[in-house]
Task: inverse folding
């Protein structure tokens, strides 16, 4: 645990007693604060009482006595409308913060020379893989690494800081909205595409939340920005204009989306946004990521074609971020490349779960929106595609250019009928359930003969049929193994 100082003897309201909330309460108490907890659910309140915390109905509390409100990232800060606790806090002049901000304040309180280094990762897609990949590369190079945040362990539940440690932290837009002092030594924005727009009031609010990862960085800190989209290009341009230390990552010498709804709000990016050899210097630099190799100025840094856990252009981008972050922390070129090539991958993210003869089954259940599914579909020339669930805005309209990659689609969940209409002449069938989709896809792949891929990349949320994407991915795995498929050996 990381104790949070600065609130000694003062009451701090904590709303939302999920993983981040109860951990924040423990960290505040360890730092000398008096956390006052509340949750709309009875089970959360019971857990808090069992641990001996003060549990108080915040609807009846005197908010003038609180030093801060620690808000669960699941509760809305601004949209569709502020949570009632936020309204109470603002009326009383009480600052609203989150667990990542508490983490930042804990590090700020450390004596000079005792602060560990921090790598933070955000983005619409790829942030979990990039977080895990960076952690793997750094650990493989012999560094003391703690990985958490929006992935795995809550940030305040990680081990207490030591000077030699490196924290690798995944942060969501919800968490970033609640930060002011969070200042990573290396801050990474993988990419931006429309997501969570209801919580941020539209695309501009979403982009503003994501760019907060760079807001408090010092002059020696490094910003790594994906520039495949207009929003990333605009952020990179602004940081460059501020004289910030920045490295861009692209999967193309000609990034997509030269125009966009946020582009007009930013200065024009330096032209051209071409890749240059990355060095840990103050000047703008960049990496171009290709699926067969990681490139910089035309020189091959690593042959990624032999890295089975990093297929596709999007994973080349993830590898580029990991390489740049590792080099910025002093890891040698050879050690960084070795870490990339030995990465075992993450569950539910382009995970090879089994093989039935020449048929491979790929679990990309984390592909919860069209942009994530695009990366998966683009990784293979032909797939038997399982898609569907609770659709997000726009459905799969943006994937029409990749329909030629679809040998046949198998549609499940609420979105099945709508996706069928969008697919049009592309072969498809409404399978309804995961088990039926896997059975039909495996049979059709066998009829096609030769090496084939059955891909689960839903382009949808899971909440119509499953509690979360992990449960959906495990349902896919179970259905695949029930056919007699053999689990693939570790990469």
Result:
């Amino acid at each position: 645990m990381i104790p949070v100082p600065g609130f000694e003897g003062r009451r701090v309201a904590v709303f939302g007693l999920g993983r981040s909330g109860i951990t924040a309460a423990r960290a505040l108490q360890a730092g000398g604060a008096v956390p006052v907890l509340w949750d709309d659910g009875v089970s959360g309140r019971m857990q808090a009482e069992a641990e001996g915390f003060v549990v108080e109905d915040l609807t009846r509390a005197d908010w003038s006595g609180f030093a801060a409100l620690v808000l669960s990232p699941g509760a809305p800060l601004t949209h569709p409308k502020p949570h009632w606790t936020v309204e109470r806090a603002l009326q009383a002049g009480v600052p609203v913060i989150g667990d990542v901000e508490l983490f930042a304040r804990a590090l700020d309180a450390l004596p000079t020379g005792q602060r560990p280094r921090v790598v933070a990762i955000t983005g619409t897609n790829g942030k979990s893989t990039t977080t895990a990949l960076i952690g793997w590369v750094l650990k493989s190079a012999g560094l003391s690494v703690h990985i958490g945040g929006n992935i795995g362990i809550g940030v305040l539940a990680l081990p207490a800081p030591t000077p030699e440690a490196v924290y690798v932290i995944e942060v969501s837009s919800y968490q970033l909205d609640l930060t002011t002092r969070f200042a990573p030594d290396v801050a990474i924005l993988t990419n931006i595409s429309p997501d969570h727009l209801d919580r941020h009031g539209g695309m501009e609010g979403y982009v503003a939340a994501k760019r907060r990862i760079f807001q408090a960085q010092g002059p020696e800190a490094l910003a790594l920005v994906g520039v495949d989209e207009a929003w990333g290009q605009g952020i990179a341009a602004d940081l460059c204009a501020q004289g910030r230390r920045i490295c861009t990552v692209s999967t193309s010498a000609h990034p997509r989306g030269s125009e966009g709804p946020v582009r007009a709000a930013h200065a024009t990016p330096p032209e051209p946004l071409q890749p240059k050899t990355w060095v840990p210097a103050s000047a703008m630099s960049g990496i171009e990521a290709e699926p067969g190799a990681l490139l910089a100025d035309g020189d091959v840094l690593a042959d990624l074609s032999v890295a089975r856990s990093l297929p596709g252009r999007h994973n080349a981008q993830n590898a580029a971020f990991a390489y740049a972050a590792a080099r910025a922390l002093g890891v040698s070129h050879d050690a960084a490349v070795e870490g990339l090539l030995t990465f075992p991958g993450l569950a539910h993210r382009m995970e090879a779960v089994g093989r039935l003869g020449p048929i491979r089954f790929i679990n990309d259940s984390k592909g919860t929106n069209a942009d994530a599914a695009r990366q998966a579909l683009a990784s293979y020339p032909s797939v038997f595609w399982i898609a569907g669930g609770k659709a997000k805005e726009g459905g799969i309209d943006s994937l029409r250019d990749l329909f030629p990659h679809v040998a046949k689609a198998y549609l499940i969940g609420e979105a099945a009928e709508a996706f069928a209409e969008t697919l049009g002449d592309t072969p498809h069938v409404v399978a309804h359930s995961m088990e039926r989709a896997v059975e039909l896809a495996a049979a059709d792949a066998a009829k096609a003969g030769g090496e084939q891929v059955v891909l689960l990349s839903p382009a949808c949320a899971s909440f119509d049929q499953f509690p979360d994407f992990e449960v959906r991915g495990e349902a896919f795995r179970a259905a695949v193994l029930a056919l007699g498929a053999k689990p693939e050996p570790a990469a």
Q: What stands out?
A: Residues 254-283 have pLDDT under 50 and may be disordered. The two ends are 33 Å apart (CA to CA).
